[in-house]
Amino acid sequence: MRLSAAFVLCALVLSPLSAAYGQDIRDEAPIRPAKLMVLERSDDVMHRRFFGRVTARNTVNLSFRAGGQIEELPVREGEFVRAGDVLGKLDPAPFERAVRETKAQLDQTERQLKRLSELGAGIVPQADIDDARTARDVAQVGYDDAIDSLEDATLVAPFDALISQRVADRFATIAAGEPIVRAHDMSEVQIEIKAPEILFRKFGEQPVFSANAQLSHDGPLYPLEFREFTAEATEVGQSYLVTFAVMAETPDYLLPGSSATVLTDISRGDGNGVLILPASALRFTPEGGAQVLVFQPDDGSEDIGTLQAHDVEIEPADGTRFRMLKGPEVGATIVAAGASMLADKARVRRFEGLSGDGGQP
Fold first, then answer.
1. Is the separation of the CB atoms in 68 and 178 below 8 Å?
2. Span of the secretion signal (predicted)?
């Protein structure tokens, strides 16, 4: 009994000491290092690879503005022509006859007007003189039209062009405006891609494209410059046609319809950046909600402080990054790496990194 009483007495004496000692150990526990980052808006650049198709600056179907039988069609498919080169001629005989006929009618009306004008209004009614003048003007219009039709019987290239297709053949009788040849203006080589609708929802209606084209496997990159995009999505695939211009000299074999690989960096064009979070900055509640840990520095110290959990709304950006839709304000300092291993209210110190990078990711 004496031994038991002594043991109890000793335990009662040492118990407060042990509790105090344990409390000291907890208070003096080392503060964990944490890699931190400051929330800042970024351009949210997305890297994408597209299949591209080479096109010309302009593609038109050329035709005669007059109808007739094709007498000459010297142009060949796949041939480059210069502006002003003759592409084809119609049989000129009908047009020459029309010129002679309308010229004779014009001469006749001019003689009639001259005769009546010399007689004067005192001898012939003024109305007859006015009618003769009107007839002369109508005949002049007919003659001018005949001259124009004769000139239109010759088809010339309106610009330096590549003739990709000859639609009509020699000796064929065609109507005015009927396509004869298909011509491409190759003064600027362009490349078209089909951008999905989701890009425009994510980056706004005027996204900024920075692009390069690869014309062959493992070939050099050719810089591209954005030109335009169709503002109406295609019925199949819900995509928009985006056009770029090649800003370097291209190989001779590059023809309309050739394939190309287009490497693009896409960002917002409205100047409003977004908040991007790395996956390592996120922790999740048992209910599945996403959180970040905001660093609150101690008074008098910028490197030691307490973490506070904040709920956030996120959506995927690219790779292992997420776009923050709702959460802490710009300028807040959060844990950048290992957030899932840290607890709310935890005490941490800024991890400066092995290279003195200030703990920034």
1. no
2. 1-20
